[in-house]
Amino acid sequence: MRRLTAGFLGTMLLVTGWSVRPAGAQLLMNGAGATFPYPIYSKWFDEYATLDSGVRFNYQSIGSGGGIKQISSRTVDFGASDGPMTDEQLKQAPAELLHIPTVLGAVVATYNLPGSPKLRFAPDVVADIFLGKITKWNDPRITAANPGVTLPDQQILVVHRSDGSGTTYIWVDYLSKVSSDWQQKVGKGTSVNWPVGLGGKGNEGVAGQVKNTPGALGYVELAYAVKNKMPVASVKNAAGTFVEPTIAGTTAAAMAAWKSMPADFRVSLTNPPGEDAYPIASFTWLLVYKDQPNELKGRALVKFLWWMSHEGQKYADDLLYAPLPPPVVKQIEARIRQITYQGKPLTAAR
Amino acid sequence: MSVVAIPQTAARAAPRNLGDRILRGALRLAALTLVLLVVAIVVEMLRTAVPAFRAFGWRFLVTSTWDPVAERFGVVPFLYGTVVSSLLALLIAVPLGIGAAIYLAELAPAWIRPPLAFLVELVAAVPSVIYGLWGIFVLAPLLRTWVQPFLGTTLGFLPLFKGPPYGVGMLAAGIILAIMVVPFISAVSREVLLAVPNTQREAALALGATRWETTRIAVLRYGRSGLVGAILLGLGRALGETMAVTMVIGNRPEVALSLFAPGYTMASVIANEFTEATSDLYLSALIEIGLLLFVVTMIVNGLARLLVWSVGGPVKVVRE
Amino acid sequence: MTPGARRAVNVAMSWLAASAAGLVVLPLLLIFAFLLWQGASAVNLDFFVRLPKPVGETGGGMANAIVGTLILVALAAGLGLPLGILGGLYLAESRDRRLPWLARFLADVLNGVPSIVIGIFAYTLIVLPMRGFSALAGGFALAVIMLPIVVRTSEEMVRLVPASLREAALALGIPEWKMLLRIVLPTARAGIITGAMVAIARVAGETAPLLFTAFGNRFWHQGLDQPIAGLPLQVFAYAISPYDDWHRQAWAGALALIGMVFVVSLAARVVTSGRFTGVR
Fold this sequence. Notes:
The structure holds 3 protein chains of 3 kinds. By secondary structure, chain A is an alpha/beta fold. Helix content of chain A is 39%, strand content 19%. Chain C is 74% helix and 0% strand. Chains in contact: A-B, A-C, B-C. Chains B and C meet through α2, α3, α4, α5 and α6 of B and α1, α3, α4, α5 and α6 of C.
């Protein structure tokens, strides 16, 4: 009995002792939020870990809604979202939160059809599919825009997000702009009352669902579709051209809209003017407190944000995100300099 | 199983020494901690659910909208999903579970009983997430490619089998739940059957009954209420099951008659949306769902326990 | 019915019951077969010693998740076992009038609470005030899940200790507390250990409560007050992803998890066999 208790206590002590942070170990920064940029964030954090061995960034992609919620509850050090926080949400946060844009991405319609044909969609067609008004693949409105493609007489299995998502926000923001029906019936938000379809968790879940279900149609961030060799659709933009979702199209969308970029970076890039603009693109933001609660963590965060907006941008292309336009980077630099700890800026003058 | 009767000795009538008092105090503290824990859970949930009570009142129980944008919440789609998936699971699990229990308790040859009982226990030990994994990669494609199209063409006139074959959906959830719940029904039923006094069996056998007839006439009838209890226990497990169901149910908060349609359960919506309920009302609504789940499982389990005990006394029911 | 018909029915029903038992066990075999088939290819040294790789890149492993689960289970056991065993001892030995009944009833209630509800409780009790997700919160949630199992099995095992042992001790003048701690508990030891192992096997596989407590970690944990990876969490995240490499790793993770669970369950069985007969 004594030996058993001793063994038990011994194991407990060993585990605890091993688990308590030893001196000189790494600083752990925790972040949560969007799945949209998860591929590039995980690449960044992995690379950054090799550059700065004293800090580790642990990012959990739980959806933009989760990112907003957790940073507002201060359970994480930074949040991430592709749906900008509303004024209401900003007011509810315990202190001022900053939106720092990181990259640009495109939300695409991806589908599972035999032969993976390249499809073209008009905006009202997309809206009506998600409203449940268009139910079959060979609906005349779809075949009209896609001559030469044989579409099956099959039901469209719509897949959307089941969790609070910035990707959803971008998608429904676009649908609200192009369809007054959608605007009235459903509206926009990170979580909406979907008329049809089933829910996948995260961009991963939606991509996985579409990939495994013949006849399915869903919306995901471009990287998720391409990495899984899934077909993506071109969408007709405001100028009337069918644009494929590419980095060029996304950057064009950004350039068309950034002139009216507000100081707090909360801007919508959907359905912009511009010949080459892809209509469903967006910034994605990191959410950080203007006044950091912890000096060490604040410094580490500021260092990373600087690296991210400069050296980090070179990773964007490979992963199919569009890098930040240079004028925006300048604005971000100014913003990063505003991050303080107890009133004192954390960035040394650069 | 009866309580060990310890005669009162003079030395135990009153704790005379410090050691006894300390130990007694420590033990009482442990019990009190347990009590406080449960009370704390209930209190905490009630407290956080209050905003939802105030905003929706009884309408929460009858509203079927779940709209985070407009902040209108109702529990109906989740209640429906939970009940239907659990009932579907029971439909499959009860005959299998009780059949297996009968086999293990009454009809199987002696050499097969221990290993088989062990295997049944192992089924219960498999973590939920692994069932979910298997559900996504094996069951759902199976349903989507073979079962659902087949059911659709043969029985498609029934509203139960209408709709596109997603693979995931209510049917997948029901089947996975059945697999997970069957070992519990089987184990408890087996103990109920074993608790039936041998005199009953011997009386039947003396009258010339076959083994099966003995089981049917003497054992099953006697243990009837206990078996109902075992079924209810299975129901209690099914109601609260989270991970496996979340992975295969399709996550759609809508009441649909078809088994092919995606659905949503109370436990799943909490798992999916808890970390991102951005407004207080949203969070409160989710916790109210959690509270309802808690109350419903408590009632079902309590009823189950009463019924199982009515057969042979406090049969061991904690069998995880 | 003729005797022949009755005998035929008897045989038929026996076969039916046997097939029911077979069908109950079949999923286990199927799942295990799949786990081996899909997961075995991904189980290599890398899997056990490497950290996860960025999204979309192949390779990497689940080293931190395996260690994370061990730590979470150790925390849960550290909290839940002492409390549970003392609680079980109380229920078996106490002569108080109402508290035992209340404690037993609530232990049963707690046993039926869905684990996700317990996760919510741990979130509001620990994560929010601590301003962060942590291994401690995860361990706490698992301990709460473990508690009723340990309490009830400990109570049963203590009750099984024969009265003669207790009386002999008391007759020799040993004070009650010594009798309980030095004689009753050691005698019930095997059964209590079994109960503990069953409880451990159960919580090792729990995912739902960890979703909002342990949170998950792509790197090694940095302390118990920080988020930590867990095998069930990692399996879940990889399973719902669209990457084939992650799917394979999910199967491997599931294999590792079920291996852990089965080993503990088997060990529990071995401990009981030959020690106390007629217990189950």
